[in-house]
Design a protein that fits this description.
Blueprint (H helix, E strand, L loop, with lengths): L4 H8 L6 H8 L13 H11 L1 E8 L2 H13 L5 E6 L4 E7 H9 L4 E6 L2 E4 L4 H4 L2 H6 L8 E6 L6 H4 L5 E6 L13 H10 L17 E6 L6 E3 H13 L1 H4 L1 E6 L1 E2 L10 H11 L3 E5 L20 E7 L10 E2 L17 E4 L3 E4 L5 H5 L4 E2 L3 E4 L2 H18 L5 H11 L7 H4 L6 H6 L5
Parallel strand pairs: 6-8, 6-10, 7-8, 10-12, 12-13, 13-15
Antiparallel strand pairs: 1-3, 1-4, 2-3, 5-9, 5-11, 13-14, 16-18, 17-18
Helix pairs in contact: 9-14, 10-12, 14-15
Length: 438
């Protein structure tokens, strides 16, 4: 088997492939284990052309490399380029093994090819416990600041549309629909965690930034899953439309298992570009705790605010909180200190999307008629994103780095190891009112 071309390719150019793609290219030869040797070569040629792989190609030089790659990809009717991502000098494509071999051997300036693997939504009285209500009562509500919820979509819930519609824009990368909707329910819950105004509950269930605008970006399907390329497309869209829709914050309650050998995968690259463009990015740490080194990607990025989950015991009192057992722990790649901080993430009541997948399969989680209870770092992340919006309302000139500094400096140390709590427990009031970082 060592003489087969794809095995030789992965051995000679191992640095050009992520671990997942290397394994899949080698596994291409499994059917040959019980096949007579004289049939190996013709079957190998057939397998290399038949099996298709969804990938993300990163180039050393975007356009010169892409132009050359186009020639090889267009030469095979079974292969195609799907999306281009200029912010990260990359594109997504569907390729067979034969074309991958040509791209590598013909020097198409390819830096790395990643398997376009699955990314999922991270699920397993929050606002008062992070002291956002006190700010809201003083008129600091996130007004004039917009949060992009990159998730399963957004249902036009009354808490987002009454008395005025705060769903600023909606982009659907799954079904290409124009009007806001959410066939899973996760994204709607997250939007409410950040910016629900309590319209349907007499202000009982409110997010941390109840007057912020919401931009719904649907990148996950009705089952709460998507792919690396779809997420990258959604974040690239936020970068491209930052000025048009005044996108100030991105909330990402999704992720995939991180490859410790690669701390700069496509998700990390695109969230870093969003950060550099001036957008604060809050990312869920993941729900793979309590083991160490379980932070998912893109939460391993050193730039973004990576959020773990605290169990606030459903009380406003801050003396009885405990770290949620499911909350992923660091350290992350290169001994990076992650998560950055903790926010409430257990039994969080937020907006219900009627008729969605979660609504139909978890009826016991319904709260009254308009709300739904979920747990996970998915919930903690938009709560933090809402607090970032409060900071930007008061300090609109702040860069993402300054917002992050405020969040970390004001977090309350809970006496836990840094790889568990980061800087500590989110405190909105201190983050907005402190003067330490001015």
């Amino acid at each position: 088997m060592l003489g087969f071309s794809m095995i030789q390719l992965t051995r000679n150019h191992g640095e050009k492939f992520d671990k997942e793609l290397r394994q899949r290219l080698v596994h291409l030869y499994r059917p040959l284990r019980s096949t007579p040797c004289f049939l190996h070569r013709p079957i190998e040629n057939r397998l290399k052309k038949a099996k298709k792989f969804p990938v993300i190609i990163e180039f050393e030089q975007m356009y010169s490399g892409l132009t050359k790659a186009h020639d090889h990809i267009n030469a095979d009717s079974k292969c195609k380029i799907v999306h281009e991502f200029p912010s990260t000098s990359s594109c997504s494509a569907v390729l067979n093994a034969a074309t991958i071999e040509k791209l590598i051997n013909d020097d198409c300036q390819i830096k790395k090819i990643y398997y376009d693997r699955e990314v999922t939504a991270l699920m397993d009285v929050a606002s008062p416990s992070v002291h956002a209500k006190q700010l809201n009562d003083n008129g600091i509500t996130g007004k004039g600041v917009n949060i992009a919820v990159v998730d399963t979509g957004v249902h036009p819930h009354p808490d987002l549309t009454e008395p005025t519609n705060r769903i600023i824009a909606f982009k659907d990368f799954i079904n290409n629909k124009v009007e806001p909707y959410d066939d899973n329910g996760h994204g709607t819950h997250c939007a409410g965690d950040a910016a629900g105004n309590g319209f349907s509950s007499n202000l009982k269930y409110r997010g941390s930034a109840p007057e912020s605008g919401i931009i719904g970006v649907k990148v996950l399907n009705n089952m709460g899953s998507g792919s690396l390329s779809t997420i990258v497309s959604g974040i690239q869209w936020c970068i491209d439309h930052k000025e048009e829709h005044k996108i100030d914050v991105i909330s990402l309650s999704l992720g995939a298992a991180a490859d410790e050998s690669d701390c700069n995968d496509p998700l990390v690259q695109i969230v870093d570009q969003a950060w550099e463009s001036g957008i604060v990015v809050c990312v869920a740490a993941g729900n793979s705790g309590p083991d160490q080194r379980t932070i998912g990607t893109p939460g391993i990025s050193s730039k973004v605010v990576t959020v773990g989950a605290m169990d606030d015991q459903n009380t406003i009192n801050r003396t009885d909180e405990e770290i949620a057992p499911f909350s992923s722990r660091g350290p992350a790649c290169g001994e990076e200190s992650k998560p950055d901080l903790l926010a409430p993430g257990v039994n969080i009541v937020s907006l219900r999307a009627p008729g969605s997948f979660l609504d139909k399969t978890s009826k016991s989680s319904r709260v009254e008629d308009d709300y739904f209870s979920l747990s996970g770092t998915s919930m903690a992340t938009p709560i933090c994103a809402g607090v970032a919006a409060l900071i930007l309302q008061v300090y609109p000139e702040f860069t993402p780095d300054q917002v992050k500094q405020r969040l970390l400096e004001s977090a309350v140390d809970k006496g836990l190891p840094e790889y568990v709590q980061g800087a500590g427990y989110l405190d909105a009031q201190q983050a907005v009112e402190s003067t330490d970082s001015e």
